[in-house]
Design brief:
CATH architecture of the largest domain: 3-Layer(aba) Sandwich
CATH class of the largest domain: Alpha Beta
Largest sheet: 8 strands, mixed
Strand content: 25-35%
Number of strands: 30
Radius of gyration: 25 Å
Number of domains: 4
Number of helices: 14
Structural class: alpha+beta
Strand order of the largest sheet: 8-9-11-10-12-15-13-14
CATH topology of the largest domain: Aminopeptidase
Length: 583
């Protein structure tokens, strides 16, 4: 599917701040008092509080599906110390479960705020006020117009902030077939270390272009997008001039919603309760409009590289590229540990599959992987959600090289273009690896260049390239870790296609109840099989050849999603049709 960029560039100007727009701030600090509590004697002071409780695995699973579980640490064979952020919307529901808990005192960090761009970049030891953030993004654009443009993901949040993204490339108008990377941070408004790091990363790439070879090569070879602040309403909840631990900055958005539990759930098509939140809708539209190869979103409160899936544990439902995720995850953590041996070393030496840590649904990571096929990871970058500003330069030193290396990983694996063998025109094609790809892990080419980018663990793979109206082509190829393999492919039409794929029609597509398969020209098909995205056989007809005629498949009992119809002819030709069901 091809998406056009719907986001126009705007001049950025500081928002006029109304100091009176937030009320009752003093009463918020009542929730910071640490007390041991039970459901019978505790009330919540608006807007949210963090609590801790020790529960067994079954209770943890229930809580993680109903509430905003923030961190989990194993305390025994089947017990877990669980930290939960409860908004005013959730508190009564949690109390009704009669689970003993302790409120977590939120000690305020030592924070200095940069009042202007000069203060922010002088020593990089301050967080920006909101107006300084806008000024910084605008300065990046005006100082480096050939390398940086600022797009708007959301122009007006409920609390009248902007969600901005910096686009960095040596050719801003044409991706030129390059892989693309998307970094975003602070979907939880009180987790601001990543916010600082993303601003500093933008500055680093721009100021080091043409003076640092590695930074220059990244900007020249990869299309880079960085959104420093996904939840400005949460970060600047109390004031546009202050950031600190909750409730100065809060986890949720202005509506009391955890945005990282509000995306469409992987593996299903139900509407999440809070999917219509403007920050969620805007981010979904933005990600749909770009064919990102890799992506990462940055959190705080732990130090771990958390790869897909969040929705399932690895023993329930492993990602097709779990081995690749383990490789790049440990490379990320090991690089951080090289600069500080005590940093980024939680869980399995700094790396975990999301559901193995604790299961959540509706995460941005799983949405991006499942629905859009991007390799998107969640990275927790600091034990404290708000680091004291005097420690910010140290954390940048620990993680800078790992951030750069992950961007570079987008240029490893299998890459190339798929074109028409006669005209050379780029094609919309499916790049599918049999006996490997599942759960939307396949990739598709992007127009106007017809390019594809497939990060993958070292090994030998049979890669099939297919496009509507063309004979598919399968190439067996060997991939090495940390290297780029260029595999350009030309697909052919002509006599062969007239005799095979072009003489099989599949309609309607998408379909809801029945699918019609029409075979013409006297061709014999020895096998017609329907597979889901996990590679599981759903139905097959190979008892007798399908000659000229029309056949109907009953799909009423199949869950909504994408499927593959696989055909084999009597003389050994095979081809695949992608089929959408339930939309």
């Amino acid at each position: 599917m091809i998406y056009m960029n719907r986001f126009s560039k705007r001049a950025i100007s500081p928002k006029h701040v109304n100091p009176a727009r937030r009320v009752g701030i003093i009463t918020l600090f009542a929730i910071l008092i640490a007390v041991t509590a039970t459901a019978q004697n505790t009330t919540l002071t608006y807007p949210e509080t963090y609590i801790e409780t020790v529960v067994d695995a079954a209770t943890l699973n229930t809580l993680s599906h109903e509430f905003s579980v923030d961190r989990v640490q194993r305390t025994g064979n089947n017990t877990f110390n669980t930290r939960i952020c409860l908004s005013y919307k959730d508190f009564d529901n949690f109390l009704s479960k009669d689970i003993p808990f302790t409120t977590v005192p939120q000690t305020r960090a030592y924070v200095q705020m940069a009042q202007n761009y000069g203060q922010l970049t002088a020593s990089w030891n301050r967080y920006p006020t909101y107006s300084t953030y806008l000024a910084a993004m605008d300065t990046f654009r005006t100082r480096y117009p050939q390398l940086c443009e600022i797009d708007t993901i959301l122009d007006d949040t409920p609390d009248h902030h902007k969600i901005l993204v910096a686009h960095i490339s040596n050719n801003l108008s044409d991706r030129e077939g390059k892989p693309s990377v998307f970094y975003t941070s602070t979907i939880h408004g009180d987790e601001v270390l990543g916010y600082y790091m993303m601003l500093r990363l933008i500055d680093y790439l721009l100021t080091n272009y043409n003076s640092n070879t590695y930074a220059t090569d990244l900007v020249n070879s990869i299309d880079i997008w960085i959104c420093p602040l996904h939840n400005p309403d949460g970060t600047y909840y109390t004031s546009d001039n202050q950031i600190n631990t909750s409730p100065v900055s809060i986890r949720s958005n202005r509506h009391g919603v955890d945005l990282n539990r509000s995306f469409p759930q992987a593996g299903q098509n139900p509407t999440k309760e809070n999917e219509d939140e403007p920050e969620v809708q805007a981010m979904m539209q933005f990600m749909q409009a770009h064919d990102f190869t890799l992506a990462a979103n940055f959190h705080g409160g732990a130090e771990v590289f958390n790869y897909p899936w969040d929705t399932w544990s690895s023993w329930q439902h492993s990602h097709a590229d779990a081995a690749w995720w383990e490789l790049v995850g440990h490379q990320f953590a090991d690089t951080c540990q090289h600069y500080n041996s005590n940093y980024m070393n939680e869980e399995n030496d700094g790396v975990t599959e999301g559901g193995d840590w604790y299961v959540i649904t509706g995460s941005m990571q799983d949405y991006h992987n499942w629905y859009l096929g991007t390799r998107h990871v969640t990275i927790e970058v600091g034990d404290n959600k708000v680091q004291s500003t005097n420690s910010l330069p140290n954390y940048w030193g620990y993680i800078r090289q790992a951030l750069l290396n992950f961007i570079a990983e987008a240029d490893n694996g299998i890459h190339g273009t798929v074109t028409d063998s006669l005209t050379g025109e780029p094609l919309e094609a499916l790049v599918y690896i049999a006996n490997h790809d599942l759960d939307h892990s396949y990739v598709e080419t992007s127009l106007p260049n017809g390019d594809y980018h497939r990060p993958i663990k070292a090994g030998q793979y049979a890669v099939t390239y297919s496009a509507e109206g063309y004979l598919p082509k399968t190439i067996v190829t060997t991939v090495a870790d940390g290297q780029k393999l260029v595999q350009d492919v030309q697909l052919t039409t002509g006599v062969g296609i007239d005799s095979y794929e072009n003489r099989v029609s599949v309609y309607p597509n998408p379909a809801k109840d029945f699918v019609t398969v029409e075979v013409d020209g006297g061709m014999e098909i020895t096998e017609m099989a329907l597979y889901d995205l996990r590679g599981r056989l759903v139905s097959a007809n190979n008892d007798s050849p399908l000659q000229t005629g029309t056949f109907r498949l009953d799909i009423r009992d199949l869950p909504a999603g994408n499927y593959f119809l696989h055909f084999r002819t009597t003389d050994g030709h095979e081809f695949i049709r992608k089929l959408a069901i339930g939309y």
